[in-house]
Amino acid sequence: MMAEEAQQAQPTEGAEAAAEGQGEAAAPKKKKMLLIISIAIAVIGVAVAVGVVFFMGGSEEKKPDETQSAVAAVSIVDVPEFNLSLLSDDPTSQHFIKIKISLELLKATDAEALTKLMPRLQDDWGGFMRQMRMADLQGSANLQRLKEGLLRRANQSLDPVAIKAVYIRELLIQ
Length: 174
What we know:
Order of helices and strands: HHEEHHE
Number of strands: 3
Distance between the termini: 117 Å
Structural class: alpha+beta
Strand content: 15-25%
Strand order of the largest sheet: 1-2-3
CATH topology of the largest domain: Tetrahydropterin Synthase, Chain A
Largest sheet: 3 strands, antiparallel
Oligomer: single chain
Radius of gyration: 39 Å
Shape: elongated
Helix content: 55-70%
């Protein structure tokens, strides 16, 4: 019986030795795999950082002098205020509008030309706003449409002068 136990013990010792050999061989493979994965993650991280800097933040920085000249180049001109009557479905009630508007020019050098063409702009806008009803001026979406309509008409009637934006400074409806 002892011999049988010795024979049974030997295969288990051999199996343990083989398992230890595989465990020792598996440990360097795991370390290699871990090293490869960590290098891949580092490379991907560097690539993402370079991409972010290249596409989002890698542009030229403006010098303070360029920024100041860009701010000084913005030209805003006030248009004389309009006092108009609105269209009404009910002839017994009449609604009036008082509006103050400013224009932002695309080029600051066009300010003088704009003052010369101001009567043409006032005539064009006056005809446009006299055709409006009270409902056309209620709500923020309608005011945005009004600004877009005024901008479109301004750029059409002041053809050589380019208008960048229309600002409504004051709006009173009675």
